[in-house]
DNA sequence: TTAGTTAACTATACCGGTTTAGTTGACGAC
DNA sequence: GTCGTCAACTAAACCGGTATAGTTAACTAA
């Protein structure tokens, strides 16, 4: 019933010790007698004392929160289930640690950098996740300058003082191309992601390399911004040609699904006339028709690993890179041998 | 260059006044001479002083952050673009207010309630958004008990002390049914959302009412959990019947898209053999084939309005309900007159 | 003239923890 | 017996703001 907030002073008084000693006992540091410590903790529990996060924040200069800043085209963000799953994974770790996640969704890169600055200035977070890595990513020097611990989702292209938690997506693309090649395809096109994003170009390079490895001619590639609309446009462009590809490897699922729509619209049958592969294995893949052959990432697992790594970094001052199992090809109904070769 | 953090004491000293006066000047409260106030603010700016959020938090007992707790089946969360857009809207308001958003994604309702408790116990947030309202929602009494300001997304069914920011989705469903009826459909089914969620049953009731209003026999209704998979199953069940509906009204877009997949798979042509309508107008709708007739919500606008209302509530102690423009029917290619009536 | 008000401002307690600089007493070494 | 050391513990400063009680000086009213 008594809702009066109990403070460390109350605990100290009833235990007959000083505030400082209670603090020591709580954070189990040396300098407290064994039985005294037990007694203090017992009393704290009896009184229902939980140390005030705010007070602790002020004296320790930490916030006990982690940050995630997302700078994405709203369209892309909305159709991409990566973040909800990733965040769910992050939360599953944070919840147990009594830490919170501060989320910012910003419209552009300038605002993004500004947001990191103010998160630090306000001491909102003790560390951040860096997603959607870009070439020569400006966030890395910025965070280094700000002294904010971070974890990168994937390995950045330049120097980085931060641990990276990586899911190698190259094998997935390679497997997609090999799968198509084995089915007998040779005119395989690639609807790539944004050239500004590391995973956009990496998938594109993996595609080119896999085509070469399969002994196939260089495949046509169209750049996009990863959005559903761009995927649709790119597909239309590819299929409007006199000689069109018999298979298309998409850099993500939403674009692949849009591609499926375009094919339907043009009367091109999938997989008979056109094979399609996606990337990410979003929930939709299993339920569109035909079900989409794609590459499974595991955003929630990624989130957990990233959170653990970031916490470790903040605690120990350093953390090892983590390499998660590479994304795997999942073969469903959208790929088949080509009709005419 | 000098990164030494400047505090209120520094400002006070250089201005030759007391800390208290600086505080008064900053929060423009009475008791400061006009020219003194200007001078203090000028000096503060010159020194580059920004009051410490942490210190301010401790003395004002506020966190200057808002909270959003999402308790959803991970599958549903991942395929539903509502939250990313909603959050983007919220952020667009918060950014200017130097407030942050604390996000929690939890697996179930118990954890959800627990999360609210700990957000309050830790003083992480000054107010929260309540989404996905349920019947007799346990969160409302809980938040009342905790004394945490909140805004509900939609009007709850019971008593609520909180302002509601509402987008009426009934007209959208009504318009969908009317549109289908006008096209000549009479066997219209409904793939409903979760019966636990208010908007699930509301859309279902709107469907039933609209059917009656159109003078049509009661339509078949299948309950789901709003997930893509459930939408697929429900559609299969509806279409596996001897006498099947000529049109299906879905409670959300992901299920409608899954339904489209099932229809394709069964060789049922949309819209010739089956008309389909969705709800939300997610980005995919325009790009699947045929493009989906759906009802446009505006999650980002909703987010902005909700944030503004919550801020107003926290500032003035009360805020008016807000009724946003009702969702509108957007007619695309997935609806057409029925083949055989 | 003098008490009463009031605006402007100061000093200081306070929010609730952490941390540092002592203080005390027991024990071992010589 | 005395000094040194160490573990256990206390007192008080500190984090950086806000809020309250008090102080001045000017101004008003009787």
Can you describe this structure?
The structure is a homodimer of 341-residue chains. With 341 residues, chain A is of the alpha/beta class. Chain A folds into three domains: 8-51, 434 Repressor (Amino-terminal Domain) (Orthogonal Bundle), CATH 1.10.260.40; 65-167 and 299-325, 3-Layer(aba) Sandwich (Rossmann fold); 170-297, 3-Layer(aba) Sandwich (Rossmann fold), CATH 3.40.50.2300. The first copy, chain A, is built from 13 helices and twelve strands. In chain A, α8 links the parallel β3 (127-130) and β4 (150-153). In chain A, α1 (8-15) crosses α2 (19-26) and α11 crosses α12. The longest helix of chain A is centred in the last third of the chain and has 18 residues, at 299-316. The mean pLDDT of chain A is 94. Chains A and B meet through α4, α5, α6, β2 and α7 of A and α4, α5, α6, β2 and α7 of B. β2 of chain A pairs antiparallel with β2 of chain B, so a sheet runs across the interface. Chain A binds a DNA duplex (30 and 30 nucleotides) through α2 and α4.
What topology does this entry show?
The structure is a homodimer of 341-residue chains.
Chain A: H1 8-15, H2 19-26, H3 34-47, H4 53-60, E1 65-71, H5 74-79, H6 82-97, E2 100-106, H7 109-121, E3 127-130, H8 139-146, E4 150-153, E5 164-167, H9 170-183, E6 188-191, H10 198-213, E7 221-222, H11 228-239, E8 247-250, H12 253-266, E9 275-277, E10 294-296, H13 299-316, E11 322-324, E12 328-330
Parallel strand pairs in A: 1-2, 1-3, 3-4, 4-5, 5-11, 6-7, 6-8, 8-9
Antiparallel strand pairs in A: 10-12
The structure holds a DNA duplex (30 and 30 nucleotides).
